[in-house]
Structure formats: C-alpha cells, structure tokens
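[retry 2/3] Arylsulfatase family member I: previous attempt timed out, resubmitting with same input.
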Amino acid sequence: MVGKWHLGFYKKECLPTRRGFDTYLGSLTGSMNYYTYESCDGPSLCGFDLHEGELVAWRHKGKYSTHLYTQRVRKILAAHDPLSQPLFIFLSFQAVHTPLQCPQEYIHPYKELENIARRKYAAMVSIVDEAVRNITYALRKYGYYQNSVLIFSTDNGGQPLSGGSNWPLRGRKGTYWEGGVRGLGFVHSPLLRKKRRVSKALVHITDWYPTLVGLAGGNESLTEGVDGHNVWAAISEGKESPRFEILHNIDPLYNYARTGSLQKGFGIWNTAIQASIRAGDWKLLTGDPGYGDWIPPPILPGFPREYWTLERHIKPRKSVWLFNVSGDPYERFDLSEQRPDVVKELLARLVYYNRTAVPVRYPSEDPQADPQLNGGAWGPWMGDEEEEKWATVYKKENMEWKRKFKMFKSRSFFRRLNTRMMSNKI
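[retry 2/3] Arylsulfatase family member I: success.
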C-alpha cells in the first residue's frame, strides 16, 4: 500500500502491514503538509506523519507527496515479476485534500482562474493526472498492462470551501446529500468487454473486495457473508448490478434533529437520528443530513460570500426526505409526503441494519497519543493489555427496535414501485 491510511493506528495491530499489506509507505492521519509531513490535531498537537513499513520515514521529508507516492508505485512495479503471482497495489493519494499545496510550475497554466483556491485545486488535480499517466506507462513498460485493471475512485464529495465542486449535485463533503456520497470514477483495463461507455450500475466501496478477489483468481468462497458483491459483470459487460441497496450511514452520536421523533418515523424509527439509505431508485434521509444547498462552482474571486447564497435552501426544517435519485439526482423534489409507503419501507430497512450494528465506541482523547511523547511523530501508543479493558465498556443491544421490527420483502416491493414510478413519469 502507498499513501493515506486514516483507518486508525492506536496500536500496531491497526497498521497497514498488520492488515494484509506486505509493504507500506504513507501517512496514518487524515491530513498533513505535502512537503514537511507535519500533521496537526488542533493548533498545539502536531507531529511528523510519514511511515515506511512500521518505521517513521524521516528521510523523505521535503518531497512532494504525490510525486513521492508515484515514484514508490513505479519502484514496486519494476521490482515485481508480473508472471510470478498477482499484484495488488492500493494507492491512496493525499491529493486533492487540504492544505492546497503544489509546485509553482503546475499553477501557472491556471493563472486565468480568478479564485485562488480553485486555481491551486486545478493544479493539484493536474499532478494527479500526471501520476496516473506515469503509473500507466510503468504498467506497460514492466509487462503488467495487458492483464491489469486500473480503478480510479474517490472517498467522498468535494469541499467547495477548498476549491472543490459538486455542482449541480446538492450538498458537499461530510453530508449525506448526493454531493457528499456520490463518487465519480473510472475503470480502465484491456480485460473490459464493453469499453468507452458510462455505467450507471449501483456500486458501493465494499464491492471492490469480492470483485478484485474474483478477478485475481482467488477463493471467492472466502468473500461469502461480506457486505460486498462481485460487480465485474456489471462493469465489464454492462449487466445489471447485483447490488440493489446501499446503507449510507446510521450515526447515533450526531446531533439529533430537533424536528425529528419516533412518531414521525411510524413508531419504528426516530427520525431525529442522522441516517440515509438507498434502495433501487429511492433514497431516504433522516435527522440532519448536513449542509444541503446547491453550491455553484467556486470560480469567482469573491467566493463564497454572496455567491454562496445564490441557491440558499430556506424551506422549513424537516427530519425526513425521500428522493427518486435516478430521475432526480440533484435532490430537488422531495417525495416523502406523496409516498409515505416508500418512506415506511425504507425506515424498516434502517431498523433492520441497526439491529446488527456494532455498538459505537468513541472514547475521549488520549493524552498518550501526543506525538511529543513518541519522538515527535504520530504512531501507535497503546499496547494490547490496555485494549482489553474496553471489551465490556460499550456493550449494548437495542431490544426496543428488535421487538418492533418485522422483516419486509423489500426487493420485489421496490421493483414494483420503480416500475410504476417510471411509467407515471413522476
């Protein structure tokens, strides 16, 4: 693995090299300086964050991260024999996350862009484009290309305050609107049967694992019971995706919506809880989904200020929304009042998923994590013996929802609804 981890590191068992990766070069936290690799959690808690294997990689300080990560991938490709065994590389670029930093020569082509953040953002995207080109060239040079699959994807929507844009989708990074959860991407491979086309198949990040195991000739029985599906036929041949439903999230800790209640959730779901689910063409949101405006691209120098309010969402606050996101991907037409039957069905699916949810473990900040106590760098600070005390702290079950929930046969239900919706052109 090369690049950003951001999946926890409080003990060594959480590191990439303990989670299936043979080698690792990258950062453990969520954001850092692209040159110095300094990462801060607040104004006073800062430390170096670049690791090679399980050691701190001080020697790479000063190298621009996108270039460094690209060079490492090319080095891996040069050293591996493509005919010996399959090779999986997960490259998680830091770009184009904040802070907006890049070499000056990449900014010059975008000098006509008046918005400074957008200018830097475009330059950083250009460096990623260059990296993809160089890695693709390495795949060809070292004999991988004809039997390779290159997947380019994202983890969330853009942040308009930092040069990004999700227009004309609604919302932004950190929200449950389509601007926050709909990820763009592409798959490039000589193995694709139908090339140069746009796929609208429903795919979730959990689908990549069983899909790649199948492509690599792995034991697919080991993927039974996981959340993902093998979606290669949908991607390569244009067949229907085996995925019908996506649980975007259920967050019981987020601020409860003041207008939500169990009564508004038909007595089975408290609509004050932040949650979102999609089934077929339908998408339901409850609680506070996050900032819900349609934000124009940040191209003017005065952004955001007055420009931000061009499409200010000023309707009364709610706690339930329903959209047909196939016909209305911009989420402009709320159908929750017209289709209470669909709302109730999707609320029941939230109840179903919540029954098997792992209890939330969100401990308070641990002062022992301070990088200054660990040689000035971020890294694991807790041993296994300290971990054992947490085993019984967050144990709980929600028996109330278990009693009230009754499993619906939703797949056929939603297919019938979708057919009627399309015929009525609602």
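[retry 2/3] Arylsulfatase family member I: The CA atoms of residues 140 and 146 lie 8 Å apart.
[retry 2/3] clearing retry counter.
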